[in-house]
Amino acid sequence: MESTSDGEEAPRGYRRSAGSARGEARRRDLLERVTDDLAANGLVDFSLRRAARAANTTHKVLLYYFDGADDLLGQAMFRLRERRIDNGLAATARGHSTLAARVRAIWPVLMSDELGLRAIDQGVGLMMYDPARYARLAREGSRQYLPPLLAICPPGWSDRRKLEVAELILATMRGFLVDWRTTGETEGIEAGLDALVRALEREEAAEG
To answer: Could you give the dihedral angle defined by the CA atoms of residues 90, 95, 101 and 105, in that order, rounded to the nearest 10 degrees?
Structure first.
């Protein structure tokens, strides 16, 4: 992967426009365009100039709205995960009344490359390769994914029980994704998913 900084730094005293509604709208538009590029092309060879081409602007304009390439990349990765979460929650809302059914509905969404799975996987790899620099690309994932999983747990459960089950779901599905991305096989994953669903059904049937 090439350097993400292009050797550019924002000029000292550069005015950001976060306080302006118009400026914030422009920042969101740029971020969406860069996020679309990451979803389609992944993180390899990411740079400010590539991001600028994707956003139909210049790298200097990006430096006006973002604190360098790493900041832009981190925000775009966060936005990729938001999209996946939104689509996953939409899938759970389609007539699925149990936690087990909701989790099964989420799995096809998580496997979709259209939602930036390749880029997210690459972000995890970069974090493992250089955690000091790239921790933000993946570490925030747990903080994003956990609240939606807690939210789909039965409302009558205690906070502790929700946390235990949500962490189990998160860790298991991460393992499934790594297995699928590294082997390309789904038969074993489907068997594991069936086992997870049965475990959740038993958990839901247990007295709370």
So the answer is: -30
Query: Sign (positive/negative) of CA torsion 146, 66, 56, 21?
Result: positive
Contact criterion met (CB below 8 Å) for 101 and 46 = no
- 155, 152, 157: which is closest to 173 by C-alpha? 152
* Alpha carbons within 13 A on the beta-carbon side of 144: 19
- Residue 4: helix, strand or coil by DSSP? coil
The token pair at 173 is 């599905």
CA atoms within 13 A on the CB side of 134: 20
153: tokens are 């747990």
- pLDDT tens, residue order, the chain (208 aa): 444 334 434 333 344 555 688 889 999 999 999 999 999 999 888 999 999 999 999 999 999 999 999 899 989 999 998 988 888 888 888 778 899 999 999 888 888 777 678 888 888 888 888 888 877 777 777 788 899 999 999 999 999 999 999 999 999 998 998 888 888 888 999 999 999 999 999 999 985 5
- Using left for φ > 0, alpha for ψ between -120 and 50, and beta otherwise, residue 42 falls in left
